[in-house]
Amino acid sequence: MFGSRWFDKSLVLRDGVRLTSRIWLPNGNGPWPALLMRQPYGREIASTITYSHPQWWASKGYMVIIQDVRGMGSSEGVFNGFSQEASDTSETHEWVRSLKECNGKLGLYGFSYQGFTQLTGELNSKPPDCLSPAMTGMNIKDHWCSDGGAYWWHNNIAWGLQIAALKMKRENNLFEWGKIKLALENKSYLTEGIDILKKYDPNSFVLEWLENLNNACPFEEFKPVSTWIKQPMLIIGGLWDPHLKGAFDLYKKSKEAGGSPEIIIGNATHLSWWEGSQESLLKFFDQHLKSDEKFNSKNIKEEKKIWNISLNKWEELDNKFHSEFIFGLKSDGTANVEVEDGSLTINSKGSGWFTIVNDPWRPTPSDGGHLGPNPGKFNRSIIDKRLDVGVFQTNSFEEDQYLRGVPALEIQVKSDQPNFDICLALSLVEEGNEKVNQFSTGFLRVKNSKLSEECIYQITMQPTNICLIKDSKLRLSISAAAYPAIGVNPGFGDGNIGAPSANHKVITLSFCLNKTFMKMNPFFNK
Which residues form the Xaa-Pro dipeptidyl-peptidase C-terminal domain (predicted)? Predict the structure, then answer.
């Protein structure tokens, strides 16, 4: 067994705050190239839910530094989230490079919040030699807390409570830690989570995000340091990850800054990755941290690939379409009653209408996808049998067809309440309609609409890559709720209210399909 060495070491920042890191070293004599992860969950864990243990990286010839960010773990200070990281990151980079065990080369790794800490720093600070941000993004509103203006109810509250529990443990408030853990385990966080957060972590950024959405307040803006994202960069995303749009946005920003980023979009949820992901990272770091030759993008083949959901294989990731479909929707009024009534037609106009009612006592449930409590692939056949779901389906495909890019639906609707949600799901239906394999979802929260007046809305869905296999069918499902992925819309007011309450209104949505269509947009907006 490889016996790496580890020890804890502290950095005292300019403002006097002490940050604690755990450092693993390879056997033998250094110095070595360094891999740095800055995270809030505890340096002992080292994101091993998705990454190999630092001991493995040390066995490959790397010095590994896992740092507790300000106010978390054993580090001093108060944790305020995203806004605190720029200066702390830059000071940490300088410190790591100064360590006697480091040969001066620095690579960054980590996902989610740990991905964000790779991208933010002081403008004039020296960039890392390479970085590998995974499952992250820079736009708080669009990449971290909402889809189509609808707050990520399950995701955000669960994450906020995890941070709150870590703070309680740090303060040795073990009873409070237990109450938070119990709320997550018995699912009461869905109804009581906001109140629990207000009690134990009133300054949580999760609460701030909800307040911003409720009151249409601007979100704090973060931009990656342009000199950093010009460096060799491997972006990792997951088809079932809530931050996937952030990965594509980061790729675009890097190209605009003059970089040559690599990108891998795998068959992954936020916490469950694919086999081979660690080897891809190791290859990337070996290429850019162990070569004595200066990085030259012309001599290196960029890795750009995406997983095909139905074919179960890797494909080149590009902005090309195999077929530029436009789908029309047709119904005689019973798309929510009879599967055969709702038609999804290829390259033809829609027609007809249908109506659904959102009863807050029994809102349409959601699961799977990128925001469900159990993310990933999901058979939604039972949900689609509900009468509060409109179902539109193609005929069986006579040959394989491909959907690559970002699905978008433009739909005309009127509501009897000023506020409402439109929730979408795309599925691949196998012969016999028994298995409805959901592969992309999307949401839109509408506020202050004019009562009973038809308006056209556009809903963007999760990026996807799938082959519509011969004899299968494509299905689009439309509902007015998707709980608990997003909260149940009350129908009035400014609140992004989550769990159903006695104050929630029954919402009736009537859809006119004459001007309704669905199309695919490219992965990378030009």
Answer: 282-519
Domain span holding position 409:
326-521
Give kind and range of the element (H or E) at residue 236: strand 234-238
- The CA angle 326-149-454, to the nearest 5 degrees, is 55
pTM metric for this prediction: 0.95
- Separation CA 335–CA 375 (nearest Å): 27
Round to whole Å and give the CA distance between 232 and 328.
Answer: 43
| Total structural domains within the chain | 3
Highest mean pLDDT: which range of 315-324, 456-465, 495-504: 456-465
Conformation bin of residue 491: beta by default, left when phi > 0, alpha when psi is -120 to 50 = left
**170 and 176 in contact (C-beta within 8 Å)?**
no
Cα(261)–Cα(182) distance, rounded to whole angstroms? 42
Structure tokens at 164: 């709150």
In a domain, 124, yes or no: yes
Radius of gyration of the chain (CA): 24
CA distances 195 to 87, 169, 199, 200, Å, are 32, 19, 6, 9
Is the distance from CB of 265 to CB of 465 less than 8 angstroms? yes
Q: What is the b/e burial string over 223-248, where b = at least 16 CB atoms within 10 angstroms of the residue's CB? A: ebbebbbbbbbbbbbbbbbbbbbbbb
Burial class, 398, CB count within 10 angstroms (exposed 0-12 / middle 13-18 / buried 19+): exposed
Residue 318 lies in a domain: no
Burial environment of residue 122 by CB neighbours within 10 A (0 to 12, 13 to 18, 19 or more): middle
Residues 526, 114, 267, 58: what is their CA dihedral angle, to the nearest 10 degrees?
Answer: 120
Find, among 456, 345, 452, the residue nearest to 394 by Cα. Answer: 345
Q: Are residues 517 and 385 in the same domain?
A: yes
User: Measured between alpha carbons, how far is 474 from 345 in angstroms, rounded to an integer?
Assistant: 10
How many other CB atoms sit within 10 Å of the CB of residue 61?
17
Confidence of residue 496 (pLDDT cuts 50, 70, 90): low
- Domain membership of residue 302 (yes or no) is no
